[in-house]
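Repro case for the chain-ordering regression, as requested:
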Amino acid sequence: MKTSPKLLWALHGPNLNLLGTREPEVYGSTRLEQIDADLAQLCADHGHRFESFQSNHEGELVDRVQQARDCEVAFIVLNPAAFTHTSVALRDALAAVAIPFIEVHLSNIHRREPFRHRSYFADLAVGIVAGLGPIGYRLAMQAAIETLRAPDGAPEAAGARRTRKG
Ligand code: DQA
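-- result from build under test --
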């Protein structure tokens, strides 16, 4: 079943602009532009619009999330990068706009240093993909698109239930 065209966003946190050269043994050799091009194609294949934004600055990401409601963004694929483990401000912005999102990490944060095990976003997210490299973004976007295809628009119908605490 086709759904009406929607706007989907990818938001990328600090240092992800360096993908391809940044610690390739951890993050791989794929550049952010390639990830975004793949997501754009996937969205286009399903008749949706796609926009991407990367910033190294917490406030810019907060501003961008605040704009999401006015822009009628239907779903966000988010890699908060280091802000995953620190940013109450970005968490609060996502809670405020109440737009469903999937949290993505290239690396498996749970196999890494203990400070990376905590996420300020995990309990707000529809779901989390971690440790699968760039394909994780694609899987997250596919899940987002499936969710939007649900007959009543309810994430539950696509098996991706959004639960909120706090
Ligand atoms: C990351 C994991 C974070 O801990 C780290 O700070 C990043 C990238 C990932 O995609 O694996 O910058 O979010």
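Ordering looks correct now. Strands lie at 7-12, 49-54, 73-79, 101-105, 127-130.
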